[in-house]
C-alpha cells in the first residue's frame, strides 16, 4: 500500500515539474494558432478546390509565419499532403561557402518526394530502399518454406508428374498430391512474377571495365527532375497525394527551379495515369520574382502579413520576459531599444529559451549576481552572430578584435586629453601675453594707428556714408569694429570737406599675424571668466585621464567609435545591432561571466592558464590578462608573493585595492620590490601604463623602502619613478621629501623637461610643493601651462636666459633689447606682479646672475638706480660698477650728485 501511495505522489510531482518546465520553455515549431480567423486557410482551400489552379504561392517575408499558416491550413485539408522542405539542406550547402547548384536542389526534392512514400507503394521504382518486414512477413516466410519443400517434393516425383500418375486417382483421397502441386506451382509463379517486376527497376548507368567507367557527358548537366520524370509520374500514379507543399526553396535565389517544377506539374496533370489534379503550393518571399513574373507563374497567390516586425517586436519580447518572470530584472528601455533589431519570432523565442538554461546553470547558488540585461545581450549576440560567438571562445572574431582594442583606445584617449590640455594651456598663454590690458586699450591702439592715416585737420570719421563720428569718440564708439574692418572710410575736415581713404591693408600694418577680431577674442579670453572656465576644463580633463583606465569599456569605445566602423561593418546587415550592444555597454570585457560556467567567484580560463604557468615555473608577462584577480590571489601560495609571479598588473591592483585584507601579501610584494628593484623594470612600465592603483604603489615603495628616492635619483633610467612619485604621492608625503632628501628638489629642477616628456600627467601645483627652482625655463617650452604656472609661482632661477624667455614667451614682448641695456628699469616697468615679487624675493641672486652678467646694462633710469641703492639687502661692495656705468648716461645733475653721495657713503 505504501509503495502505491509513493508512486502516486511521485507521479504527481513529475506532472508538476513537467508543467514548470513547459512554462520555462517554448518550442520553435510552427504553431496551429497562426490563422485563428481562418482567412489564410479559406483562401488556400479555395485555391486547392479550384480545378484551374495548379500552382499556388504563399508569399511573405522571412519569419512572417508561413509555415505556421500551412500547419493551420492542414488541419482543415483532409487529403494526403506531401511536404518538402529544404531548410535542413541550406546550412549543409552553405557551410562549404559555395553556391548551391540546381542539380543539388533537384536531388534533394526528388529524394524527399520518393523516399517520403512507403517503399511497398512503389515496387517498380528504380530507387531501391530498405523494406521493413510487416506483420504478414512471418506467414510469408512459412509460405516460402512450404513452397521450397513442395518444389523439392515435386522434383522427387517428377516422373509421376510428367506421366500424370501423380494426379491419380482424381478424388478427394488424393488431396495431399493436389496440395503439394498447388503450393509448388504457385510458389514458382510468384517467384517468376517477383523477378519480372524487379526487372523494371533495373537500369544501366555505366559500363565499367576494371578502372574505366563510361558515362554520358550530358548526365552531369541535365536536370535531375527531368531525367527521372518517369519516376515522378509513377510516384503520383502509385500514391494518393494531391497537394505538394514546398518550403524554403526561395533561399537559394534560383528561379530556374520554379520553371522546372511548373513544367513537371503540367506534365503530371496531363498524364492519363494520374486520375486526380496535382497542385504545388510554394512558400516563398515576395521578392523572389521581379515585376509581374510571379503573377504569370502562379495561378493563385496568398500574401502573408508578418506576425512580427521591428515596430511590434517589443510586445513579443515583453511577453517572453513575463513568461520567465523577468519583468523586475530586465531594463524596459533596453528591451524597447534592442527589440527594434529583432524581427523574427522564432529567434526571440529561442533567445529566451537559452536564457532560461543559462540562468539555471550560471546562478546555481540562488543569488542573482549576474546582470540580466548583459546576459540577454550576450544571448542575442550568440543567436544573431553564431559564428562570431563560436570564434569568441578562441579569442578570434569581430567581437574579440573590438574587445582587444581596449588598451590601444586608452592610450589614444590619454593622448587626446593631453593634447586638449596643451591646447587650453596654449590659449591661456596667448591670452596672458596680450599687451593691451583690456578691449578699450586695444581700440585705442588701432585708433591711434588710424589717426596716422587720416589727412590733417580731420575732425570726423565714418563708413559708407553713415553718420560720422568725432575723432575723440572713436575708441568708444559702438561702430568701431565695423569702421576698422571696412575697405574704405570717409574723413571730414574742419571745413566740412569729405574725403574717402582706402584702409584695406590697415589691420595687417598694425599686426601682421592677427586681425583686430582675433586680438579682441584673445583679450576676451583673458577675462577672469575665461580663466576660471579654462581652469575647470583643465581639472576635468586631468580627472578624466586619471579615471580613464578604470572607465567602462563602452565609455572608452565611444571615444574611438570611428575606428570601429570597419569592424562593425564586418557584422554585415546586423552591424547596427552589434554597435548598439557594445556602445551601450551591454556587451563588454566581462562577457566571459555569461558565456561559460566560470562566473562571479570562479576562475576563468585565463585565470586557470596563469596558475598553470606559474606552477610550471613560467613567468607570465606583467600584462597577462587575469579575469578574476581575487580568485587567482586566493589560489596562489604564500611564497608566490615573494617571487616574480607577483609582477602582474591585475594582481597588484587586487592587492593594493584592499591593503587591509591583503596586508601580508602586500608586505611580501614590497619586500620583493626592494630586493629585486632593478629587475622589475618591465612590470613598472606596464603598471604605470595600465595599473589602477599607481598612487598606492608609489606610496608603498616610499614607505617600505627608505632608499627608494635615492635609488631612483641615482639612475637616469628611473625617471618614470620620479615622475610618478611627483604625480601620485600624497601632498603631505610630498612636502616631507625635500627635508628628508634634499637632493630631490635640485634633481627635479634639472630634469623637469625629461620628466614631463614621459607623458605623465603632473599637476603643476605639486612642483611648487617640492620647492623647485627651474634652471632653464626654455627647456619646458613645449609645456606652456606648466611654464606659466612656474613663472607665476616664482619657481625658477633668476638668470638672463629665464628673464628673456619670460618676456618673449610668457609676456609676449618681442623686443629684448631693453632687457640688455636697462634690465631693472624694464623689469619693474612691465608692471607684472609675479615677476616683481620673484625679483624682490631673490634680489641678491638677481644682481649676481643678471645685472652683473649684462655688460651693456648702462642705461638704467635714475629711479631704478636710487631704488636699488636704497635697499637694505644691497651689497656693500662688488656692485658699485653698475652705478658707475649708469652715471655717464644720466642727464640730471642733481640726481647724479645724489647717486654719487650714496655710492660714496
UniProtKB/TrEMBL annotation:
InterPro entries: P-loop_NTPase, YobI-NTPase. Residues 40-399 form the YobI-like P-loop NTPase domain. SUPFAM superfamilies: P-loop containing nucleoside triphosphate hydrolases. The chain crosses the membrane at residues 136-155, 175-196. Pfam families: YobI-ATPase. The keyword ATP-binding applies. It comes from the Bacteria. Keywords: ATP-binding, Membrane, Nucleotide-binding, Transmembrane, Transmembrane helix. GO terms for molecular function: ATP binding. This is ATP-binding protein. It comes from Labrys neptuniae.
